[in-house]
Amino acid sequence: MKRILIIQVIILTALLKVDGQQLPLYSQYLYNKFLIDPAVAGSDGYTSFNLTAREQWVGYYGAPRTYSFSWQTRFLKRGHIIKQVSPRRQVFRPKSDGKVGVGGFIFSDKNGLVRRTGFQATYAYHTWVQQATQLSMGLAVTGYHFKIDERDLNFEDPDEPWLNNELRKGVFIPDASFGLYILNSRFSFGFSADQLFGARAKIGNDAYKKLQVSRHYYLFGSYTFTDMRYHEFQPSFLLKMSEQFMPQVDVGVTYTYNQSVWGGLAYRTNNSIIAHIGAKYQNIWIGYAFDFSMQEIQRLTYGSHELSVALKFGDSTRRYRWLDRY
């Protein structure tokens, strides 16, 4: 039994010090970029509530499971501007403007023996670099409880020291992330850096003093081709990289009909194909993604599944009118 314990500890060490999957993957990041970039908070003018559930490698024992619930909004203030409607006539038009976005989310992420449960709170500032192009900057503080799930450890000896030390209780880790985001009615690009402290600021027992977490960097973008009526094609990419310089890239394309139904395909450089579909009804967005791995692990699993449900307040006229500065 101790031999099994040694194997599990080796796996844990590899997860913490090598690249591993220290942060959760998301296949539908296009529809909730806030989860990977704090600068997105409030950028589209919506007040949004989003629930995401991801089961990776279903059927494989100890596979990653991620659940998150996020909220974001933008503080808008009312005012008036003078609008020239003819050479001899000027009128006052209502105007909404706001440069501050806020948001936050809670999450639970389990990967093998490691469990992370925590929260993130975000402040974002939005400004204009051109008439219809917005630049956003965001800063987030994160706190999560990191622990080894002792329910997955088996010992023959009930007096085993590992059962009575601080390893079972976990440790609270504060951290931070930063992001930039450029948004236009046709394109969007973003960059973010996550886990800036690298778990160096730890509050807990010496059992975790060797715990280190790699910084992760995200670079993503998309461009929309539209006939200005019902059809839209949106190619996109996501580059994810850690300090070990082991990049992972998603490249895909999404087709949207009448801004209400969509579907797409993407390729991930770990030899995975991602298919996703979704639909919008009034202020409810629902999306589903299926990841099919072309590696050996696919023989032991039923693929990876991700479900996203969003509730958004603020209709489409509000969303797109702010791009024209009202």
Describe the structure.
There is one protein chain. The chain is mainly beta. It has one domain (2-324): monomeric porin ompg (Porin), CATH 2.40.160. Helices cover 7% and strands 55% of the residues. The protein has helices at 2-17, 316-321, and strands spanning 47-55, 65-86, 89-111, 114-130, 133-148, 171-183, 187-194, 216-223, 225-226, 231-242, 248-257, 261-268, 272-281, 284-293, 304-313. A hairpin with a 3-residue loop joins strand 12 (261-268) and strand 13 (272-281).
Q: Which SSEs are present, and which pair or pack?
A:
Layout: H1 2-17, E1 47-55, E2 65-86, E3 89-111, E4 114-130, E5 133-148, E6 171-183, E7 187-194, E8 216-223, E9 225-226, E10 231-242, E11 248-257, E12 261-268, E13 272-281, E14 284-293, E15 304-313, H2 316-321
Antiparallel strand pairs: 1-2, 1-15, 2-3, 3-4, 4-5, 5-6, 6-7, 7-8, 8-10, 9-10, 10-11, 11-12, 12-13, 13-14, 14-15
Distance between the termini: 68 Å
Q: Would you identify the regions where 5 or more consecutive residues have pLDDT less than 50? A: 1-20, 317-326
- Strand line-up of the largest beta sheet: 1-2-3-4-5-6-7-8-10-11-12-13-14-15
**CATH topology tier name:** Porin
- Please summarize the sheet with the most strands: 14 strands, antiparallel, barrel
Task: Please sum up the structure shown.
With 326 residues, the protein is mostly beta strands.
